[in-house]
Amino acid sequence: MSEHLSEQEIVRREKLAKFAELGIDPYPAAMWDVNATAVEILDAVEKIKAANPNPEQPIHELDIYKDVCIAGRIMSLNSKGKVSFIKIQDNTGRIQLFISVDNICPGDDKTMYNEVIKHLLDLGDFVGAKGEAFVTKTGETSIRVKELKVLSKALKPMPVVKEKDGEVFDAFSDPEQRFRQRYVDLVVNHGVKETFLKRTQMVKTIRDFLNANGAVEVDTPVLQSIPGGAAARPFTTHHNALDIPLYLRIANELYLKRLIVGGFDWVYEFSRNFRNEGMSRKHNPEFTILEFYVAYKDYIWMMDFTERMLEKVATDMHGTSELTVGDNKIDFKAPFRRITIYDAIKEYTGHDVSFMTEEQIYDVCKSLHLEVDKTMGKGKLIDELFSAKCEKNFIQPTFITDYPVEMSPLTKKHRSKEGLVERFELMVNGQEIANAYSELNDPIEQRARFEEQVKLMERGDDEAMFIDHDFLRALEYGMPPTSGIGIGIDRLAMLMTNQASIQ
Asked: Are residues 63 and 203 both part of a single domain?
C-alpha cells in the first residue's frame, strides 16, 4: 500500500504508529465537552478589552471563559522551545492556542509537549483544549492551554492557503477539484461555508413564509412509475422485487396535485429532482426545487404572492431588497415587470411569431442560426427562440407570461387569449428562476394534451411527457381551480449568495 502514498502520507502514518507506542489513542471515543466557540470567545474578550486597561490580564471577569473547553482543526503550528502556538478552526472561526511546557506538563513527564505537540501533531489534526482566555502581549486573543487532547489524526495533508498583504498564495482554487472535494474546499477557503449557511437561511425564510400563510409541507415519491410533471429526460432504474422499471423523479407536480384532489388547499415540498440532461453553470442533473399548489387561486395571484415572498427573502438575507449579482444590481422590490412571451420575442428578435405556423417559426429559428430540427414541435421551437435570443436580457425580476398552449401541456387555457395558456416564468439575471400556471383541471382536455405529447415522443422528442393514467383518474374525481409554481432553489441561492455556478 505504501507505494501509492505520498511522502507526507507515509510520515503521518509513522506518527500514527508512534501514538500507539506512547499509549495514546488518536481516535478516542470519549466525548469532548465543548462549552465555547472561537467567535464567542473572541467577541467576549473584545468587550472586556474595551473596558480593561490591562490587556495582559487573564479574563476572569467572565466565568464561562475562566474554564474554556474548545475543539477544532489545526490550521497552523509554530513551536519555539518551551512554547507553542497552534491556531485551530472550529464551526465559527479561528483562535490561537498558547501552549507552554510547564502548563501542559506540570510534573516531570514532558512527553505530551516534547513528543506529541512538537513532533506528532500536523495541520488538519483535530484537538481539544482546556484552559482560560487571555490576550497576549501582541494583542491576540488566545487560550492558555492547561490540557490538550488529540481527537482525530489527519492522514492526508491539507492544502495550505497563505495570505500576505491581501494577496493569496497556493490557493485551493481548481474548480473541478473544489467541487469533487467539497470537504477540503469548506475547510481552507474562506466564504464557502458562509454560502452554505446563507442557503439554509434562504430556505428557512421561504418555509416560514409559506407556513405563516397556511401552507402544509409534504413529501412525495422519488421513485416513480411515470416520470411526469415536466418535459425532461429521466434517469431510469429497476425495482428487483417487482421486476419493473422505475424513474427518478423529474418533478413532483402530479403528486402534489393529487393532494389538492384529496382535499388539501395548499401544499408544498422542497423536492430533490433528477434530470438526465446536460450540465452547465446553470444546470445540474440533480437539483432542489420548491413546488407549491394553492386551491382556488390563479396565475395572477401567484405572481403577486411570489414577488412578495422573494422580496421578503432578499430583505431577510441582505437587509434590503437590492443586492449585487456579478456586475449587476438586482432589486427584488415588488412589483416585478410583466411581459408576454410573444412580446418579448418581438422585442429582442424583431419577429412577431404570435400568428405563425410551426413551419414559419422553424424558418425564423434557422434564419437566426439556431440549432433546431424537424423533431421539435411548435412549443419547443418557441422555447428555443426565447431561450437563445431573449432570456439573457432580463436582468431585473420579470414575469414572462401567456405562453402558447403547445409549450404547456399541464396548464389551463387562457381565459381571453386564443391559443395561449395562463402561465408565467420568472426571469432574473438572465435565467429562469420559477415556472407557474393556472393548473389544468379538465380531465378530458388533460388527456388530449397528454396524447399530443405522445405524438411528439413518436417524432423523436425524448423530453415529451408520458401519459399518467392514474393522474387522469384523480382529475376525474375533481380538482378545484388551482395555481401552482416551481422555484429553482439552487438558482435562487446563486442569486442570493452572488455565486456564478450552480455547483
From this structure: no
Instruction: Answer with the one of 105, 139, 158 that is the final residue of a domain.
Output: 158
415 close to 391: Cβ distance less than 8 angstroms: no
Distances (CA, A) of 132 to 72, 74, 174: 16, 18, 40
What would the pLDDT profile of 135-178 be if each residue is shown by its tens digit? 888 889 999 999 999 999 999 988 776 666 666 555 666 766 77
Does residue 309 sit in the same domain as residue 424? yes
Q: DSSP label at 336? A: P
Query: Across the chain, how many H-helices and E-strands are there?
Result: 15, 20
Q: What angle do CA 446, 450, 451 make, to 5 degrees?
A: 115
Give whole-number Cα distances, 172 to 130, 175, 499, in Å.
32, 9, 17
Residues 296 and 415 in one domain: yes
| Beta-carbon contacts of residue 317 (< 8 Å; ≥ 6 apart) | 198, 201, 202, 205, 323, 496
User: Could you give the CA distance from residue 358 to residue 379 in angstroms, rounded to a whole number?
Assistant: 9
Most confident of 40-49, 97-106, 283-292, 423-432: 423-432
CATH of the domain at 267: 3.30.930.10
Within this chain, do residues 152 and 204 fall inside the same structural domain, yes or no? no
Report DSSP state, residue 406: G
Q: Are residues 123 and 197 in the same domain?
A: no
**Shared domain check, 151 and 79:** yes
Residue 16 has pLDDT above 60, yes or no: yes
CA dihedral 408, 410, 412, 418 (to 10 degrees): 30
The reply to whether 421 falls in a domain is: yes
List the domain range (segments joined by +) for residue 315: 193-220+249-336+396-497
Same domain, yes or no, for 151 and 275?
no
Dihedral sign of CA atoms 89, 94, 99, 105 in order: negative
SS (H, E, C) 68-136: EEEEEEEEEEEEECCEEEEEEECCCCEEEEEEEHHHHCCCCCCHHHHHHHHHHCCCCCEEEEEEEEEEC
List Cβ<8 Å contacts ≥24 apart for 443-448.
Answer: 443/472, 443/475, 443/476, 445/413, 446/410, 446/471, 446/472, 446/475, 447/472
Whether 483 and 401 map to the same domain: the answer is: yes
pLDDT in tens, 369-417: 999 988 888 888 999 999 999 999 999 999 999 998 888 888 899 999 9
pTM of the model: 0.85
CATH of the domain at 114: 2.40.50.140
